[in-house]
Amino acid sequence: MLHLHLKECDSTQLYLKENFKDLFLKDSYVLISTDKQLKGIGRNGNRWDDYPNALTFSFLLKPTINVITIPLAAGIILCQYIKEQWGADLNLKWPNDLINCHCQKCGGIICQYIDHESIICGIGLNLGYSKKLSGEQNYKTPAGVIKANVKLSSQDRKIIPRNIYDYFLSYDFSNLNIKKDFEKTCSHLNKQVSITDTNKEWIGIFQGITDNGEALLKSSDSKINTFISGSLNVLEK
User: I need a labelling partner for 218 at 20 to 30 A (CA). Which of 22, 37, 71, 200 fits?
Assistant: First the structure.
């Protein structure tokens, strides 16, 4: 494994993507972590804000399952790791958010397909308390943390991402039942949600996912619509 820990960078995802060829020549397993991320990237071009006691890092994965399901698989595995390490029970919001027991978003996952050998997996985790985060009101899903009493040192920002990456690399993705495992931890199963897809909003009851990770939404006329991507907002708490 090649692990580069940066004092600061615009985005660990962009750093890994822009330097992919040179880094991949050195090792096919690469991790980029940082003390401070300045211009984090979320889904659909949205920003991912970096806060005190938060982690931001990106790494390479080799696709061993359907690439469409890898973000969901990463969420399932990450929830398992967090439960083992910090005793926190998290849920998942389709397609890529981690939700704490207060229905607050405390993490996110972005996956970018590079080629048949490599996918960049970018992770942001609001691990511990931040006064700045607690006052933030500009998110559709309220922001929160995983474990309020956690305080991160610079060394933690280097070691914890490496431990998480080691956990991912040791995990046999083929043992996952994506549909069953996701639905077991889904925060909005059988709840009313909206999904915005190609500038159109759909409202219905979230029925789960297909084996390929597509969202299943039951509309008021009982029709089931499927979505391979989109932005989901929970309407029923």
Answer: 71
